[in-house]
Design goal:
Blueprint: E1 2-6, H1 10-22, E2 26-30, H2 33-42, E3 47-51, H3 59-68, E4 75-80, H4 84-93, E5 97-101, H5 105-119, E6 126-129, E7 132-135, E8 140-143, E9 146-148, H6 152-163, H7 171-178, H8 189-200, E10 206-209, E11 213-216
Parallel strand pairs: 1-2, 1-3, 3-4, 4-5
Antiparallel strand pairs: 6-7, 7-8, 8-9, 10-11
Helix pairs in contact: 2-3, 6-8
GO molecular function, one term: transcription cis-regulatory region binding
Protein name: Response regulator transcription factor
Keywords: DNA-binding, Phosphoprotein, Transcription, Transcription regulation, Two-component regulatory system
Length: about 220
């Protein structure tokens, strides 16, 4: 999953990026509203963490412009605790949730997981496909109840496919959603990780749809 963080406080921006990276997300960052708007307008993100008080272009204006342009990715607003009006305006502008500063990083991660999960149509933190079960909170994957070890890249790939099970996902879409903009995107990388995953999962869990991409079949 690929996340955009738009926060002008350098230290907070870094802390959020580090926490999201440790949680297995690919993360891009911006430090002002104009840069954030541009990235959200031109790159595909699974969710955005957006501060309201940004230089160049404030967060509410960024959000309103995205929604006018038809951008539907979930947006988690960062608001000042004593500004309840910001929360109301943010929700009205199209935000999906908010976290008030100061906040615990665990809360931000939990709310972000929920946004990504709901956007993909899942009500539970556990996603299953046949004998494969993914706990999105812990990143633990089991096959018929037995835990399997995955590298961070393998887990990232499996998680995206599991979130979108039943849909055919192209290699281009996988590359765009699994790696940040600074990653050296080799077209063969996805095939390598799919091959490694298939060795650890039951046969036919990950199917190749010739000429289109990959698919995890539903239950």
């Amino acid at each position: 999953m690929r996340i955009l963080v738009v926060e002008d406080d350098t230290n907070l921006n870094r802390q959020i990026k580090d926490a999201l990276t440790d949680a297995g997300y690919a993360v891009d960052v911006a430090f002002d509203g104009e840069e954030g708007h541009y990235l959200g307008d031109t790159e595909p993100y699974d969710a955005v963490v957006l501060d309201i008080g940004l230089p160049q272009m404030d967060g509410l204006s960024v959000l309103e412009q995205w929604r006018r342009d038809g951008k539907t990715m979930p947006v988690l607003l960062l608001t000042a605790r004593d500004r309840w009006s910001d929360k109301v305006q943010g929700i009205d502008a199209g935000a999906d949730d908010y976290v008030a500063k100061p906040f615990h990083m665990e809360e931000l991660l939990a709310r972000l997981r929920a946004l990504v999960r709901r956007a993909a149509g899942h009500a539970s933190n556990e996603i299953t496909a046949g004998p494969v079960r993914l706990d999105v909170r812990s990143g633990k994957v089991t096959v018929e109840g037995q835990a399997i070890k995955l590298t961070s890249h393998e887990l990232r790939l499996l998680s995206y496919l599991m979130h979108h099970k039943g849909k055919v996902i192209s290699r281009t879409e996988l590359t765009e959603h699994l790696y940040d903009q600074d990653f050296d995107r080799d077209s063969n990388t996805i095939e390598v990780f799919v091959g490694r995953l298939r060795k650890k999962l039951p046969d036919e869990v990950i199917q190749t749809v010739r000429g289109l991409g990959y698919q995890i079949v539903g239950d």
